[in-house]
């Protein structure tokens, strides 16, 4: 007997599985090349702007800080565009093409003589300033590379996928504002709107003014038959309210990361310092001035490996905590190390400047001192340790304090802090330059670093870092105890194999019988 097959059944057969591990090399390579194009260029762009476009150190630092801030901020915009309009793959394509166009424009500024002002005259040492068109051509390349980073980073790392399709935060804010005149109910019985099956059915008492956004005034008018809100801009769920509360609660802790972002963003001045020092390792090999940042990266990588594989298991046995020490303690250690890094930078720069004057290089900033550039290694290593503790501690802290629906926001908050820190660098440098130059005085951040006082600038950052550390202690105390982290546990019936321990003393879930 013959068996006939429905032709439609043939089209329902599972197709060959796509994705998986085979795609990882492409994703990693795409992300790596974009990082090389942005971070790899940043240290060496200082000399390019000073030599090719005749900018002074303060102006060059200002331009590069704005570029760095834009590069760190555009991924947030790219995440929104990806998840709301284009999708990840289209956004990656647009980002790659845009980044490539930016690199081509930057390459053309070096290849086309008319794209830069003519070289300075050797005898008179007079330099013609850049024209508006030349600067526009240069800045266009920076903008395109920043936009490209905004398309590549959020999609490659997928840190923007979870939260942007959930527009609860703006709707929740509008709903709370619309109901600002109503009184909060004295009882907690059947007056809040929550998703069926949700563990969170009653909002917490923190920021109680926001609880008005989920109050049901008239159930027949406010709620549909399927349980959803008739107008999401007037009625939100308890879960949406608690998500915004979680975000607002961590903002003081997040703000403490701005100053350390300023310290991490100091790439212009260490490059100029290294350029004036003896960088030889052997008689025939010397480290490029722009490569001293590798000591920061190497310290970061080595410490993470040692801490994760050797130190954490031992600390976990002693403290009983899965991560060895609390996340807020790790953030604080990073801030303290950042203070030490800036103090070390100030001391080394003071030594370098005195050596330059003693050896007769006061009027020759291009001269190479008889002082090893290895003196700069300790400050880079301390910066790497500070970033290892603080950056990773911040990310894990946000991840542990947010609900799962906000995990992507947790991973993007540090990048947003870096963007704000880069902007603050430009403000600080501008203020120091304007306050210290004039009336025949040499600016502390002068293009002639042997006549300037970069050591004073580093001491300013040290003072700001110490004040920021004290501010962190206050914020940490005000936040309250937060010891839990998400840990991998063998839990039967848990599809993700994850258990989220309650990190704070306040309970996030309320029994429906309450």
Automatic annotation (TrEMBL):
<dbReference type="InterPro" id="IPR036259">
    <property type="entry name" value="MFS_trans_sf"/>
</dbReference>
<feature type="transmembrane region" description="Helical">
    <location>
        <begin position="287"/>
        <end position="307"/>
    </location>
</feature>
<feature type="transmembrane region" description="Helical">
    <location>
        <begin position="62"/>
        <end position="80"/>
    </location>
</feature>
<feature type="transmembrane region" description="Helical">
    <location>
        <begin position="327"/>
        <end position="348"/>
    </location>
</feature>
<protein>
    <recommendedName>
        <fullName>Major facilitator superfamily (MFS) profile domain-containing protein</fullName>
    </recommendedName>
</protein>
<keyword id="KW-0472">Membrane</keyword>
<feature type="transmembrane region" description="Helical">
    <location>
        <begin position="456"/>
        <end position="479"/>
    </location>
</feature>
<dbReference type="InterPro" id="IPR000109">
    <property type="entry name" value="POT_fam"/>
</dbReference>
<keyword id="KW-0812">Transmembrane</keyword>
<dbReference type="GO" id="GO:0022857">
    <property type="term" value="F:transmembrane transporter activity"/>
</dbReference>
<feature type="region of interest" description="Disordered">
    <location>
        <begin position="484"/>
        <end position="514"/>
    </location>
</feature>
<feature type="transmembrane region" description="Helical">
    <location>
        <begin position="92"/>
        <end position="112"/>
    </location>
</feature>
<feature type="transmembrane region" description="Helical">
    <location>
        <begin position="132"/>
        <end position="152"/>
    </location>
</feature>
<keyword id="KW-1133">Transmembrane helix</keyword>
<comment type="similarity">
    <text>Belongs to the major facilitator superfamily. Proton-dependent oligopeptide transporter (POT/PTR) (TC 2.A.17) family.</text>
</comment>
<feature type="transmembrane region" description="Helical">
    <location>
        <begin position="409"/>
        <end position="429"/>
    </location>
</feature>
<dbReference type="GO" id="GO:0016020">
    <property type="term" value="C:membrane"/>
</dbReference>
<dbReference type="Pfam" id="PF00854">
    <property type="entry name" value="PTR2"/>
</dbReference>
């Amino acid at each position: 007997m013959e068996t006939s097959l429905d032709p439609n059944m043939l089209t329902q057969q599972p197709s060959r599985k796509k994705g998986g591990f085979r795609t990882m090399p492409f994703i990693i390579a795409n992300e790596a090349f974009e990082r090389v194009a942005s971070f790899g260029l940043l240290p060496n762009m200082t000399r390019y702007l000073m030599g090719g476009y005749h900018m002074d150190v303060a102006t060059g630092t200002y331009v590069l800080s704005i570029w760095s801030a834009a590069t760190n901020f555009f991924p947030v915009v790219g995440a929104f565009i990806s998840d709301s309009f284009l999708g990840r793959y289209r956004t990656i394509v647009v980002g790659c093409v845009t980044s490539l166009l930016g690199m081509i424009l930057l390459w053309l500024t070096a290849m086309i003589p008319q794209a830069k002002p003519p070289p300075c005259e050797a005898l008179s040492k007079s330099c013609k300033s850049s024209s508006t068109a030349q600067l526009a051509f240069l800045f266009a390349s920076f903008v395109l590379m920043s936009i490209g980073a905004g398309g590549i980073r959020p999609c490659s790392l997928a840190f923007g996928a979870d939260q942007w399709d959930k527009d609860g935060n703006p709707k929740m804010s509008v709903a709370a504002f619309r109901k600002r005149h109503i009184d909060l109910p004295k009882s907690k019985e059947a007056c809040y709107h929550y998703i069926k099956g949700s563990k969170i059915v009653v909002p917490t008492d923190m920021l109680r003014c926001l609880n008005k956004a989920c109050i049901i005034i008239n159930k027949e008018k406010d709620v549909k038959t399927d349980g959803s809100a008739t107008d999401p801009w007037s009625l939100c769920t308890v879960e949406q309210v608690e998500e915004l509360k979680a975000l607002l609660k961590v903002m003081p802790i997040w703000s403490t990361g701005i100053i350390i972002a300023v310290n991490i963003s100091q790439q212009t001045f260490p490059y100029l310092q290294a350029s004036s020092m003896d960088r030889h390792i052997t008689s025939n090999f010397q480290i490029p001035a722009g490569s001293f940042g590798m000591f920061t990266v190497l310290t970061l990588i080595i410490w993470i490996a040692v801490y994760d594989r050797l130190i954490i298991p031992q600390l976990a046995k002693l403290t009983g905590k899965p991560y060895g020490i609390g996340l807020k303690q790790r953030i604080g250690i990073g801030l303290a190390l950042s203070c030490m890094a800036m103090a070390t930078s100030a001391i080394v720069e003071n030594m370098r400047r005195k050596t330059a004057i003693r050896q007769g290089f006061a009027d020759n900033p291009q001269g190479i001192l008889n002082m090893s550039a290895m003196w700069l290694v300790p400050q880079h290593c301390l910066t790497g340790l500070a970033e290892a503790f603080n950056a990773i501690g911040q990310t894990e802290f946000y991840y542990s304090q947010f609900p799962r629906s906000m995990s992507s926001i947790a991973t993007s908050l540090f990048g947003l802090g870096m963007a704000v820190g880069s902007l603050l660098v430009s403000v600080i440098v501008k203020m120091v330059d304007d306050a210290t130059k004039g009336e025949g005085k040499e600016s502390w951040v002068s293009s002639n670093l042997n006549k300037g006082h970069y050591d004073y600038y580093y001491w300013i950052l040290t003072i700001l870092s110490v004040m920021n550390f004290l501010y962190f202690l206050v914020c940490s105390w005000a936040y309250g105890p937060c010891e839990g982290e998400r840990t991998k546990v063998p839990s039967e019936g848990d599809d993700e194999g994850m258990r989220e321990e309650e990190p704070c003393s306040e309970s996030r879930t309320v029994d429906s019988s309450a």
